[in-house]
Design goal:
two-stranded antiparallel ribbon; 7-stranded mixed sheet; alpha+beta; 46% strand; single chain; elongated
Length: 166
């Protein structure tokens, strides 16, 4: 059975949008599995924490194309964490910018998603080696839909067995 993902929450597009909104250089906003740069330059790490289905999956059959389309509304919680000089101030700015109408429009057009809520901003500054390492983190919850199409070929022939002795 062949499946095609038509729409999914795009973390790469989210990282690109965050980099653009914060006016950070290329490579400054990274996925959680890539090591951040060492030093004082700001680095933002973005990772999915949870993704929860809202309601039930909607199913639709397209007989002309012989596919079944499954659409699921979801709430995805994303952790956004900054490291480096002024990490807390950078995340304060981002929490405000995420609520701007221009950012909301970019979320809708680029990710087909909307911002639902933000968690409180947390200062996670810690001592590393000889000095402090500035860190700040918050969670953002986004609403979006995932859509998958599955080949569902018609039944062209079927055997039917009838019994007359019943």
């Amino acid at each position: 059975m062949a499946t095609t993902t038509q729409q999914q929450f795009d973390m790469k597009a989210l990282r690109s949008l965050l980099r653009e909104v914060l006016s950070l250089p290329s490579g400054a906003v990274r996925p959680c599995y890539q090591a951040g740069p060492s030093g004082t330059e700001p680095c933002v790490i973005v990772s999915v924490l949870t993704s929860v289905e809202i309601g039930t999956t909607r199913q639709a059959f397209d007989g002309a194309r012989e596919i079944e389309r499954l659409s699921t509304a979801r709430l995805t919680t994303v952790s956004i964490e900054a490291f480096g000089n002024n990490a807390y101030a950078l995340m304060q700015t981002l929490t405000t910018l995420l609520q701007a109408s221009s950012t909301q429009a970019m979320l809708r057009t680029r990710l087909n998603a909307g911002l639902v809520t933000l968690s409180p901003l947390r200062d996670l500054t810690t001592v590393m080696g000889a000095g402090p390492e500035e860190r700040a983190q918050f969670d953002a919850i986004f609403s979006h839909s995932d859509c998958v199409e599955i080949d569902l070929k018609r039944i062209e022939h079927a055997s039917v067995l009838t019994r007359s002795d019943i």
